[in-house]
Amino acid sequence: MLVPIDPLSPLQQRLLRELDLCDLPALDTAPESYTARGLDTGEVRDVLPGLLWAGLVEKRNGSGGTLRLTPLGAAALRAEECDELTARLSAVVSFADTVSLGAAPRAAGYALARLAEGTWSLEEAQSYVRDGGAGSDRS
Question: Rounded to two decimals, what is the model's pTM?
Fold first, then answer.
């Protein structure tokens, strides 16, 4: 699949996810729509031209304009999500090697759950198991 720009930044991904849920009013007409979603309007203003230029987002006219995710934008978002899930699955598989070395089942299960949900990196999960589950206040 061709993706028209380099890997999306976390902010670009977040904005595309929001637009995947629903169209948003143009930033200049309703900045509160972005603020209510926890998006910094200044940062959105910086990344939006690139998303428009790449064809991932389109601005539709009428009543001040609306931003909408394009099919290409949806494809780019799905590609990023797929890459993230592939990396997470790879980490889970690598973690199996750590567990096979005789990790305590409870610590391994806890670390595996955090790794699979994306809360911890592979290194954090391995460290947790190596430490015998010490420091379980990580979250």
Answer: 0.71
